[in-house]
Specification:
Rossmann fold, binds zinc ion, two-stranded antiparallel sheet, four-stranded parallel β-sheet, alpha/beta, about 40% helix
C-alpha cells in the first residue's frame, strides 16, 4: 500500500515538475551560463561550449571511456574486463572535468533547470553524428529517489533527455522504473563500494513498455558505470531487447589512465 502511494507521488511529481519547469524556464535565447552570448543550437553559447572537453576517439568500444593511444589495440578497456556491465554499449559526450563539472554541480545542487535543457542539446548534437544511437523504442532517464526529487525539484537526467526526446520523437518514460533505495552519494565511494551501494536500488513497476524494447538510458555522469549498469540489469531482466547508455559526462578513472 505504502509502495503504491510512493509510486503515485513520484509520478505526480514527475508530471507536475516537468510542467512547472517548462513554464518557468522556456527555451532561453541567451547562454544560461554567462548570459552574455547567444545560444548555439538552443544550448550554451559558443564561448561556454569551448570550455568543454568533448570525448574523441580512441575510446573503448564498449563503455566509451577515452583510451590512451598505447591501449587502443585492446578490445575492451580495463574496466570493461574487470566489471560485468549489463548495457550493450555506453557513450559519454564530454569529459567530466573543469567547466562541465561546474555546470553539472550547478544543475544538481543550485536549482538550475534551465541549464539541464541547454546541456541536453549536447546529447542531440552528439546523436546527430551517431546514427547507431537513433533507433530506439524508448528513452528512460535514470530515476532519482522521490525524496531527492522533492528537494531538488526535478530529475536532472530527465531534463537532459527532454531535447533528445523531441529530436528523436520517441516516447520518454520516467515512471516505469523507480529508485527505491536512498543511496549514499556515489562521489565519496570507491569502485567496489559504488557497485554495492547501487545494487538493487532500482525496481521496474511496469514491464509492458519494456518487453522487447530497444532502450536508450540517459544519465548525467558515467564514472564507474555502476549506476547505469544496475538500471540496465533490471531492464534486461524485465525483458528489454537491448539497453544502450548515453551520458553527458564521462569520468576518467586514474586507475584506468595510469595503468595503461
Ligand atoms: Zn556563455
Ligand atoms: Zn570500457
Amino acid at each position: 500500500m505504502m509502495k503504491i502511494r510512493i509510486i503515485e507521488i513520484q509520478k505526480w511529481l514527475c508530471q507536475i515538475g516537468n510542467g512547472m519547469v517548462e513554464l518557468l524556464f522556456p527555451t532561453p535565447e541567451q547562454c544560461p551560463v554567462c548570459g552574455q552570448e547567444e545560444c548555439y543550437h538552443g544550448g550554451l553559447g559558443k564561448n561556454c561550449l569551448s570550455r568543454i572537453a568533448f570525448i574523441l576517439p580512441p575510446i573503448c568500444w564498449r563503455c566509451g571511456r577515452p583510451q590512451r593511444l598505447i591501449a587502443v589495440t585492446r578490445k575492451n578497456c580495463l574496466q570493461c574486463n574487470e566489471n560485468r556491465y549489463y548495457f550493450s554499449v555506453a557513450r559519454s559526450v564530454a569529459v567530466y572535468e573543469g567547466f562541465l563539472r561546474e555546470y553539472l554541480t550547478e544543475l544538481k545542487y543550485r536549482y538550475r533547470p534551465d541549464l539541464g535543457e541547454a546541456l541536453g542539446i549536447l546529447l542531440v548534437e552528439w546523436v546527430k553524428c551517431h546514427p547507431e544511437y537513433q533507433k530506439f523504442n524508448l528513452i528512460i532517464p535514470i530515476p532519482i529517489h522521490w525524496q531527492k526529487l522533492t528537494v531538488r525539484g526535478y530529475n536532472q537526467a530527465e531534463l537532459l533527455a527532454n531535447p533528445l526526446q523531441k529530436y528523436l520523437g520517441i516516447p520518454i518514460k520516467c515512471d516505469i522504473i523507480v529508485r527505491d533505495k536512498i543511496t549514499l552519494s556515489q562521489n565519496a565511494l570507491n569502485k567496489e563500494e559504488r557497485f554495492a551501494n547501487i545494487h538493487e536500488a532500482f525496481r521496474v513497476i511496469d514491464t509492458k513498455p519494456i518487453a522487447g524494447a530497444k532502450i536508450l538510458l540517459i544519465d548525467d555522469i558515467f564514472t564507474t558505470g555502476a549506476t547505469v549498469s544496475e538500471a540496465s540489469r533490471v531492464l534486461m531482466r524485465a525483458g528489454a531487447q537491448d539497453v544502450k547508455v548515453l551520458t553527458l559526462a564521462g569520468g576518467i578513472l586514474d586507475s584506468e589512465w595510469l595503468a595503461t
